[in-house]
Amino acid sequence: MYQEILQKAGLSLNEARVYEALLNLGEVNVNKISIKSKVHRRNVYDSLNKLIEKGLASETFIKGEKSFKAINPERLKEIIKEKETALDMYLPDMKKLYKSVEPEAEAYFFRGVEGFKNYLQLILEQKQTVYFIGAKAFWLDPRLKHYLRHFDKERKAQGIKFVHLFDYEVRKDKPEILKLVGKPYKFLPKEYSSLTAVDIFGDYVVTFVGVKPGQLDEEPLQFVLKSKTLADGYRKYFQFMWDNCKEE
């Protein structure tokens, strides 16, 4: 039940299974843990030792027999914070290395929902206004629900503004997006709707294909172009379209 989230918190599959078994069983011996977790007895010992090292389990002796029990799951949050603190120590130097070899112009693509999150991270890194052409409200895709809460909070904290030119259909089919992103926004004329969208921010132009109002493809694909000259040009195109669309 909790294996996936436990693995995301940094536990191996076997560690997650053993820890979940401990949560369910209380203070027990290795045999019972092995049966409940479906992890071989030999591997249970290894997982228990690692859980003890991480402060997620403890052992006791009862009548000469070793027993183990789980430590409060709140410890998981402490582990994540410890990792973040350790990472923060090295991030500045790592960023310098990244910037020192980053090209001024390049082209690549992001694939899948995790790739889409990388695109959102680019927005936060650039810290500049985002201009959306043919916006489809695909931020309403349920697969992005939890991540977007964090993203939207961060982008507002950084003062990153959005300016949307939505496809005509969004007004009728997905009006909830308007409250979510806020003004300013306009709508393209009906005859100019398409299955594509273009976002411009900082030095980037990101193109989406096969998108529909309110949802991403099953395996979304974003083409990323990095070029200050190109992005500046697209911003001029955006301004022309904005000036020629009616106010709402």
Feature tags:
248 residues; alpha+beta; Arc Repressor Mutant, subunit A; Endonuclease, Chain A; seven-stranded mixed sheet; two-stranded antiparallel sheet; 49% helix
The CATH architecture of the largest domain comes to 2-Layer Sandwich
Q: What is the CATH class designation of the largest domain?
A: Alpha Beta
Helix content: 40-55%
What composes the largest sheet? Answer: 7 strands, mixed
Low-confidence stretches: none
Number of strands: 9
Q: How many independent structural domains?
A: 2
Oligomer: single chain
Rounded radius of gyration (Å): 25 Å
Strand order of the largest sheet: 3-9-8-7-4-5-6
Q: Note the beta-strand portion.
A: 15-25%
The termini sit apart by 48 Å
CATH topology assignment of the largest domain: Endonuclease, Chain A
Tell me the layout of helices and strands.
Layout: H1 3-8, H2 13-25, H3 30-37, H4 41-53, E1 57-62, E2 65-70, H5 74-101, E3 106-111, H6 112-126, E4 130-135, H7 145-157, E5 162-166, H8 170-173, H9 176-181, E6 185-187, E7 196-201, E8 204-209, E9 221-226, H10 228-243
Parallel strand pairs: 4-5, 5-6
Antiparallel strand pairs: 1-2, 3-9, 4-7, 7-8, 8-9
Question: What features would you describe in this structure?
Answer:
The structure is a single chain. By secondary structure, the protein is α+β, with helices and mostly antiparallel strands. It has 2 domains: about 5-75, Winged helix-like DNA-binding domain superfamily/Winged helix DNA-binding domain (Arc Repressor Mutant, subunit A); about 105-245, 2-Layer Sandwich (Endonuclease, Chain A). It is built from 10 helices and 9 strands. It has helices at about 5-10, 15-25, 30-35, 40-55, 75-100, 110-125, 145-155, 170-175, 175-180, 230-245, and strands at about 55-60, 65-70, 105-110, 130-135, 160-165, 185, 195-200, 205-210, 220-225. Strand 4, helix 7 (about 145-155) and strand 5 form a beta-alpha-beta unit. The mean pLDDT is about 90.
